[in-house]
Amino acid sequence: MPGSALKAGARKKIIENSPGLLFISLVYIVMVAIVSWFTIRLPGSVSLEDIYSRLATGEMPGFGVIYTNFRPIGAVLAIILYMIQPILDVGFISYCLKTSRSQSTEIKDLFNGFLFFTKIISIFIITIVLIFLWSLLLVIPGIIASYRYRLAFYILIDDPGKGALQCIQESKLMMYGKKVDLLTIDISFIGWYLLDMLVLIITPLPFALPIVSVWLSPYVGLTRAAFYEEQIAKIAV
């Protein structure tokens, strides 16, 4: 099935499940925004906000600035908050996957990732390391690697009993010959992402986020869920 058909199916699902799905999307976006806000503004931590402000003015903070502002406790808290992001992502993926399958959904599905968070974090860390190692060769091998492992979380959601390495390996096999297809789908959303960024720039917060992101998040999520469903169906055949 071409990407245009998958996207058309995703739009249909959004219409059929609105306004509930859009509300869930808003809750997910707000949670991610809150986690991100606290991650860069932890008092007494690495002073990331100060570092970001320096970068915004074109100043490259040296090692001395980073070392002076470093606080171990704050760094640990920042890492913990950073690890919450993939857990929330898996919750939203789970919700989109159930919606794509026309299954009953609840808001608590957004928190399904906390039921097997150790495996989520393991997949997250392992794939980051693998992608980084491939990126040492060149940028393109790194991009290929990132798509090779893109379905690992979906596989874990369908069978939480599987280990992290097993999910990664199955994703690798499932994405064989399909990486360009998913890349093409992702590229087709670039216009939406640019519009989202434009709205963020021209619209004062907190009103900017819901305007485009509330629609875009389930649009992308349901399209990718449909892509995963397509790969599952091919394996079954």
Provide an overview of this structure:
With about 240 residues, the chain is mostly helical. It has one domain. Helix 2 runs antiparallel to helix 5 and helix 8 crosses helix 9. The two termini are about 15 Å apart.
Topology:
Layout: H1 3-17, H2 20-40, H3 48-56, H4 63-69, H5 72-100, H6 117-135, H7 139-148, H8 152-158, H9 164-174, H10 179-187, H11 190-202, H12 208-236
Can you give me a brief rundown of this structure?
The chain is mainly α.
Describe the sheet with the most strands.
none
How confident is the prediction overall: mean pLDDT? Answer: 85
What is the element string, with H for helices and E for strands? Answer: HHHHHHHHHHHH
Radius of gyration: 19 Å
Q: How many E strands? A: 0
Helix content: over 70%
Low-confidence stretches: none
Shape: globular
Helix-and-strand structural type: mainly alpha
Number of discrete helical segments: 12
Strand content: under 5%
* Count of domains: 1
Distance between the termini: 15 Å
Question: What labels would you give this structure?
Answer:
237 residues, 76% helix
